[in-house]
Amino acid sequence: MYNKENMQDMQKRVDQYISQFEEGYFSPLSMLARFTEEIGELAREVNHHYGEKPKKKSEDDNTIEAELGDILFVMICFANSQNISLSDAFAKTMNKIETRDKDRWTRIVNQEDNDE
Questions:
Q1: What is the dihedral of CA 13, 17, 23, 27, to 10 degrees?
Q2: Where in the chain are the domains?
Q3: Res. 1: pLDDT tops 60
């Protein structure tokens, strides 16, 4: 089993891995293509699991979890190549969403809220 890592640790781990190779990070356009490819593979797995298209017997076993892991790896590579902290990016996005969309959806009412 793997140790759970925070995003900074994950970014550092990916950077240490990529830094072993002369080629380094792919260009932004190549990484975007890889990202798109991985999203397509995720879509295929979701379709096999939830859709009407069963997997062929000749197709490799794969999981939604594995495809999400692949997408996360490519996203971290992209962020690292652009010197972007995903922790900071996530915090900014959550602040935006929690502010902009705070009244957009129907909230779940807790039993404790009804008792007041």
A1: -30
A2: 7-101
A3: no
Burial class of 39 by CB neighbour count within 10 A (0 to 12, 13 to 18, 19+): middle
DSSP codes of every residue in 7-70: HHHHHHHHHHHHTTSTT-SPPHHHHHHHHHHHHHHHHHHHHHHHSS-PPPTTSPP--HHHHHHH
Would the pLDDT of 105 be above 90? Answer: no
Over residues 3-13, the pLDDT tens digits come to 678 999 999 99
Give yes or no for a contact between 60 and 41, defined as CB atoms under 8 angstroms apart: no
- Alpha carbon distance 80, 11 (integer Å): 7
Q: Can you identify the CATH homologous superfamily of domain 7-101?
A: MazG-like (1.10.287.1080)
**Under a CB-based contact definition with an 8 Å cutoff, are residues 76 and 10 in contact?**
yes
